[in-house]
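Budget justification aside, the reviewers requested a transparent look at the raw inputs and outputs of the sequence design task funded under Objective 1. We therefore reproduce one unedited record. The lines immediately below are the structure tokens for a 209-residue chain.
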């Protein structure tokens, strides 16, 4: 997929995403043995603070898990979505990680869906995301830009296998103004008055009130 360059920082992809699990042994069994991610680094944190394990998710990127002895229990709809896409409300709290999408090749997508089913993973429906009013197509058409299937890990983390089905986004793909905290499109940060994308501009954070 073609991407625009970062004009502010030389960020080179994802170093790692850190999640929190309830049972590290069960997490290893799921991510290493079911999803096939190599376990590449294990850490026993000092002073009995817990553990920190890293899995290789490809392209030099890692998925990391903490285990803390006294971590609060997960709360569906707060710490993570309560439902998979296509099955109900997928909202989660501000600051939470809603889901982790793992990139897969489009020609392998259907095969991988069946492979997950064969391993006993409960899946949501396959969603072919497009630009139609429903935003989902029952078939793969030229308007579909990504194919997705969603599922849970043992701790209720929503995972996605995502396959891009196009050669890159264009200016036409930036077509919606961003809403503010009240859900209003109150200021033009994405689109100019004529509907064209706003040019990137370097900004500093407003002073805290």
């Amino acid at each position: 997929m073609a991407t625009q360059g970062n004009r502010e920082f030389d960020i080179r992809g994802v170093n790692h995403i850190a999640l929190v699990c309830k049972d590290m042994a069960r997490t290893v069994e799921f991510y290493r043995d079911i999803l096939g991610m190599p376990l590449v680094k294990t850490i026993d944190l000092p002073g009995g603070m817990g553990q920190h394990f890293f899995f290789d998710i490809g392209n030099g990127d890692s998925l990391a898990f903490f285990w803390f002895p006294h971590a609060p229990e997960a709360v569906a709809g707060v710490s993570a979505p309560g439902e998979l896409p296509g099955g109900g409300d997928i909202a989660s709290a501000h600051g939470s990680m809603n889901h982790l999408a793992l990139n897969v090749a489009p020609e392998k997508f259907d095969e991988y869906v069946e492979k997950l089913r064969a391993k006993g993973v409960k899946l949501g429906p396959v969603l072919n995301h497009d630009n139609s009013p429903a935003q989902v197509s029952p078939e793969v058409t030229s308007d579909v830009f990504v194919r997705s299937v969603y599922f849970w890990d043992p701790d209720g983390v929503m995972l996605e296998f995502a396959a891009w089905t196009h050669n890159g986004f264009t200016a036409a793909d930036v077509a919606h103004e961003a809403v503010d905290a009240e859900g209003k499109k109150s200021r033009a940060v994405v689109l100019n008055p004529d509907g064209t994308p706003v040019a990137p501009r370097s900004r500093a954070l407003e002073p805290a009130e």
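Helices lie at 24-34, 109-118. The CA atoms of residues 65 and 132 lie 37 Å apart. Computational costs for records of this kind are itemized in the attached budget.
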